[in-house]
Prior knowledge:
Layout: H1 10-35, H2 39-42, H3 57-63, E1 67-76, H4 87-93, E2 101-113, E3 117-121, H5 122-125, E4 130-134, E5 140-149, E6 154-159, E7 181-186, E8 194-205, E9 216-219, E10 231-233, E11 239-246, E12 257-261, H6 262-273, E13 286-290, H7 293-299, E14 307-312, H8 317-320, E15 328-332, E16 335-336, H9 340-348, E17 355-362, E18 365-372, E19 385-386, E20 396-400, H10 403-409, E21 418-423, H11 428-432, E22 439-443, E23 446-447, H12 451-459, E24 464-471, E25 474-481
Antiparallel strand pairs: 1-2, 1-4, 2-3, 3-6, 4-5, 5-6, 7-8, 7-10, 8-9, 9-12, 10-11, 11-12, 13-14, 14-15, 15-16, 15-17, 17-18, 19-20, 20-21, 21-22, 22-23, 22-24, 24-25
Amino acid sequence: MVGLRRDWPRSALLQSLKAVLVAGALALSCATAHVSPATAQDRQAPQSKAEVTLSFAPVVRKIAGSVVNVYGSRRETRARNALFDDPVFREFFGGGPSQERVQQSVGSGVIVSPEGIVVTNHHVIEGMTEVKVALADKREFEADIVLRDPRTDLAVLRIKTSEKLASIEIGDSDQLEVGDIVLAVGNPFGVGQTVTQGIVSALARTQVGISDYQFFIQTDAAINPGNSGGALVDMQGRLVGINTAIFSRSGGNQGIGFAIPANMLKLVVQSARNGVNTVVRPWFGARLQAVGTDVAEGLGLSRPAGALVVSVVGKGPAAEAGIRRGDVITAVDGIEIDDPDAFGYRYATKGTSGKVNLSIVRGGNKMTVSVSLQTAPETPARDLVKLRGNTPFSGASIANISPRVAEEISLTTDLTGVVVTDVEPGTIAYQLGFQKGDIILSVNNETVETTKDMERVLRGRSAYWRVSINRGGQVINTVFGG
Length: 482
């Protein structure tokens, strides 16, 4: 390139500039002719409307009839009890007696089978006892709740009709890539079925805090209140996710929405078709935690990613495969994982038969182990009991803790004792604030190790009930009036 200097005469400067421009023009002409000699001739005006119109209408027509509105309701009457007058329970649990009331919810759903199998979010019908489904053509049907799975925030309904209904094909969410175009279909703000378009912004989003299985598709397709349970579809009209939540400071769409991947949906739907009311997942038999920077450096990992094994249950699948405390799981069947949430998703969607290969790092060495996919054992037997009578636990269902129960309720697998598996709305236990997952440690200073112990302790009459429970690792001690 010719250098330009400020002290050149004006005529010499102009001649140099001219030479540079001519040379550049010739070079550009040669380069253009060499790369694409016919580019200019190929460009022409559109010859038809189809050539200038980009429309998602064909995809929408294909799937619109399979997206429905879901309406849930529950009528509850709260019973008054002397326990509500106890200031100790009011301070800790809050609440109090009230009159009969009707609770309602609204959301979206997707028909995934011509027989009327509908998938929606669990939070749309949580606590509801009656559900109605409105089709895209405005017809309404009652529906049964077939399965509730709060761990994935999914629920399965069955529409009460013998008519074959329009349904959607469930796609393979693992085939999605960042940048793929997707459509979100649902009923935002109750205004009627609406379609929005966007792209997949990210995959395998964890640490979102929505459900136990933190593994979401992120999209910028507009998702608003009422879209929950609606469809996220690809350009072939296949269901690739269930719209579940948005990240918003205002309550409306701000371009960050999350959907449950279709491959997790398949597991829940299959469980419902098998006639069970809880999702059957493979048992791993180990407790995991995220890998921090210090741990990664100490173990010789190139980056802080993977799932660190912190404890292993004896005679569980992990132990039988030779996995040890301190191992770091880095991949499931060759797919890398970043944290325990990603491992939980990948492992859960493998089913309950066959084997899965895990890549692990142990002492700086890489190896692969094969783990048997199996359901968790129910030992001891759960011995499910629904408690009644004039006690703080009236309306609560309890069970002995086994690996199967721990898996269903998302407890650590090394716990023992008695756990609350359900609390009936409107009952004393419900109003006192007892929750599913509460582990009962003692009642009136008597240790509770089995459901039989619990029944025996509650048979006696007492002026006060001294209760100790473990809730999420925190021990809570309180006293209720009798």
